[in-house]
Amino acid sequence: MRQIVVSAIKSDKGLQFVRRYQRIVVFVSPICMASVILLLWLTSDGERRMTVLCLLPLLLGPPVMAWNIWNIGAMQAAHSWRSLATGQVLASLFAIIVGVPLVVVYANPFGASLGAVTVEIVMAIWCSVAAKGLPNRIDRRSDRSRKDYRTMAVYSGLAWGQGQTDRLFVGLVAGSHTLGVLSLGASLSRALGDAVASSNANLLRAELASAPASRAERLGTKVLLRGMILAAAAAVLTACANKWVLIPILSESWRPALEIVPLLCLSVVPSVLSWSAAVYHVRFNTGKRALIGPFVSIVIALPLSMLSLLSLQALGIGIVVREFVMVAVSYMAIGRRAPWQALYGALAITALLGAAVFTLDMI
To answer: What separation in angstroms does the CA of 284 have from each of 38, 205, 225, 290, 305?
Structure first.
């Protein structure tokens, strides 16, 4: 829904669709999640049941997100980026204050669950106040909300399936230990970069929604290049923290995951483009062709996992290359309006980032 909300609130029918989506998700999502948690609880025993109960705070997550979706869309359409960023920072700080002490004291998932929900609640409260006074409808235009929502729902499902397929094949081919090392290394290397990519996609969505088609390519390229530079800076910061903070203080058992962090940092630059590809598909009504990119990525998952038999470094290189392949396939599906110059820029920025990260690693 976040992929289409900016364009949806620009029409009466689109706004009605958003409101209907909110009402359905607020009631249906907790029921679905509660059913899964109940199933896990019934099939567990002893201490595992207590662990499952620690997931209960997550029931509040989807309803709060759905309730806040219009506020976020209205603020993006009104270019209230500073307010959105401030709210996100405050929400993250509250989550750390609430969740981290609980994780340290009780060593169970309750702190992480409560922290995740705290982010959404604080962000929702902030946005509900900040969005007051913004118009319910920015302007009038033809509405494609339902069609776009269905397509983007499938797109998001395939993108989620890509991640799960990667984990499944790596686990089957190389074992659970390698899967755990890769998952930890990927989380450490991409946390900051994915935050930049997500924020940049939100900015691009609002910019393209209000720009004429003739200016969309140039405007999009400018936004994407700026986002990739920020992502590269985040990658360098991550590599520095990995080398001079994490490696010295963590035990030797963490070393395999920490050693692949510099390599996986390179994937954050093309990820800015892959996160933003869906924005172009929605803007230029090429939603059905949007499914080609994540589908190709899923097909590549099996041969990609075979690289883990060589080394984690080979698998890391394959992951970076796969990001570029997915972006190229998505841009071919978009056609001539795709920001090809941004892709060429991504190749150059990744090369420079690779030189910087590996020079840093050799120091």
So the answer is: 43, 12, 20, 11, 34
- Transcribe 312-352 into DSSP letters: HHHHHHHHHHHHHHHHHHHHHHH-TTS-HHHHHHHHHHHHH
Residue 107 phi/psi, 5° resolution? 55, 45
Q: Is the pTM of this model over 0.70?
A: yes
Other CB atoms within 10 Å distance of the CB of residue 94: 16
> Which alpha helices (DSSP H) does the chain contain, by range?
5-8, 12-42, 47-53, 61-77, 81-106, 110-130, 145-174, 176-210, 213-241, 247-249, 255-259, 261-265, 268-283, 287-290, 292-306, 312-334, 340-362
Closest Cα to residue 204, out of 338, 95, 51, 42?
338
Rounded Cα distance, 223 and 228, in Å: 9
Helix axes 176-210, 145-174, angle to 10 degrees: 160
- What gap in Å lies between CA 115 and CA 94, rounded to an integer? 8
Amino acid letter, residue 104: V
Phi, psi of 286 (to 5 degrees): -115, 35
Considering only CA atoms, which of 343, 311, 302, 319 is closest in space to residue 264? 319
Which residues does 239 contact at the CB level (< 8 Å), separation at least 6? 261, 262, 265, 357, 360, 361
Count of all residues that appear for the chain in the document:
363
Mind listing the pLDDT tens digit for each residue in 168-199? Answer: 888 888 887 888 888 888 888 888 888 888 88
